[in-house]
């Protein structure tokens, strides 16, 4: 998901930016992954501030924007990674497939660990969806023009909307958007069976197969944005039009919300537009400040996150699970996983408000990763999938 061009290659021009690599994209990716690690690792799952939780069903919170932001960035990155292919398409496609399979298997490994029980393992997941979106967007980028990509984007969103709101759900008899009886849920439990979906949901999966189609649309929106940023237009023109497009796309999502509700679990078309529009605005701001105005104060820790994004996401999911396998006996004879023990011993006692303690636990985890990733960045250690 990262261009092969050196991370620290930044144009020295004040008004024009080389399309080889955007430091702002690394920063935006790093900021997104740092936020993802924060919300995935609270000190106490029972005490979380509302903005750091997902919306129960319809609607959205800031946390609901993190994953689509990352998929949007995947799409942008595709244009920079594949935009200079030399025509050796067969070799390029092989690398794309290999990377996609590797990502999917890493996600599957997280779901397997530590029980490794194939009869109940969840098959979908975050990395699995990233793999599928990356695969689809990369192949579409190689085989189509930007105009055709825009048509595919619109077709996916409109087609998904019509499918979810018009097609009667087998066994239910009518189209609906309820958690367990919608078409995407039926598709998940039919293809994957309830044994292999998200356990809290039981009969459907928030990263399920059918809802991956509009998620590809999120990646395509990023691709179109990346193509625009790689164009020969002036930096000011790029930023102005990107801000305008971001505002209109966000507005489109809010309007569509009136008859196809914004919903992360279903990855509704209105949600694609809302999150994609806000991602466009965020990237436009970062691009203007970092790559055009060359404002770099305080950005490098997030750049360090950005250049090793998949590594930190994978390990930040794996390490807590390993820590919870290591049990520490308390004075009263009860046992705690080492992660929970460290939180209760060294963080929670310093806070009277449980939500503050839980947030402090998450931020401590992120700060530890900042230290590790900063060292890797300084040593130019970049682990690519």
A few lines on this structure:
This is DUF5009 domain-containing protein. The protein has 385 residues and is mostly helical. 60% of the residues lie in helices and 2% in strands.
Tell me what the structure shows.
The chain has 13 helices and two strands; from the N terminus they run αααααααααααββαα. The chain is mainly alpha-helical and about 375 residues long. The chain has two domains: about 1-55 and about 295-385, no CATH class; about 60-295, no CATH class. It has a two-stranded antiparallel ribbon. β1 and β2 form a beta hairpin. α1 (about 25-40) runs antiparallel to α13 (about 355-380) and α10 crosses α13. The protein is globular, with a radius of gyration of 21 Å.
Strand order of the largest sheet: 1-2
Overall average residue pLDDT: 90
E-strand count:
2
Quaternary organisation: single chain
Determine the structural class based on helices, strands and strand pairing: mainly alpha
The string of secondary-structure elements, in order, is: HHHHHHHHHHHEEHH
Distance between the termini: 8 Å
